[in-house]
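Incident log, structure service

09:12 report received: a user says their structure output differs between two submissions of the same chain.
09:20 pulled the input from the user's history:
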Amino acid sequence: MITTTLPDTTTLGAVHLTVPDLDRAVDHYAARLGFLVHGRAGDEARLGAGAGDLLALKGDPGARRARGATGLFHFAVLVPSRADLGSALAHLVATRTPMTGASDHGVSEALYLSDPDGNGIEIYRDRPCAEWPMHGGRLEMVTNPLDTDGVLGSRGPEPQGAYALAPGTVIGHVHLHVSRLEPAERFYRDVVGLDLMQRWGNSALFLSAGGYHHHLGLNTWAGVGAPSPPPGSVGLRHFDVRLPDRAALDELVARAAVAGVPAKTTPDDVRLTDPSGNTLVFTTTHRRAPQ
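09:34 re-ran on a clean worker, output below:
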């Protein structure tokens, strides 16, 4: 019998982006956000917080951003504590890095910004799940003003040397523009195997594995019926999803076969593309930076 959901231990891996100016992008993520450069070769760079890669950048000088298209809304960097979020906010202020917003979602506290190429970024910390807002037994995330004074006041002593993301920082979720919600929901629920956690009106959905508030957000804010970006565009190439074992990969392939969804498989991973052209790579490998 084929399982219908991903294992509770599913996590996200690296987000892979195309950028037109690799030097500029690497400098921004290192100097403004505190990413460590794990490696660089040719037109590619890998960045993270000291363990697995969180971000993989590919430079393409001819790349341009497609407006009104599907793709990345933002990727979300989850720091371990409120103190770490306070340190991130203080560093953004000190470096005069423009922000696009800051919110309290009940489940989390979040900062929003974009990189120089318009790729959306969220930096957030989670509240304990016992504090998550619920209504009628269902999760009910909210969007309230962030207590920025409280966040800044929570940070510890100033670090020695250059600012860096805290060890233990991970990619907490990815939020995508999709063309239409219904086919996207069917794909991510019935084929990928995520659980629906919350609907946001008629324009956004949030799904997860293992009861997390969300590993994935979907929205139609780029327009209902938005097209996929042309090949070589600035933005999302794909993002990695880490499964605990090969059996979970095999179950994923079986669900895709039943649904008639093409799956590109290798000995190490499975690649699926959603109905809006967004690509996910499922792997059991935690890709680590060289020691």
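09:41 both user submissions now match this output. Likely a transient worker issue. Closing.
09:42 reviewer note: Residues 287-291 have pLDDT under 50 and may be disordered. DSSP finds five helices and 19 strands in the chain.
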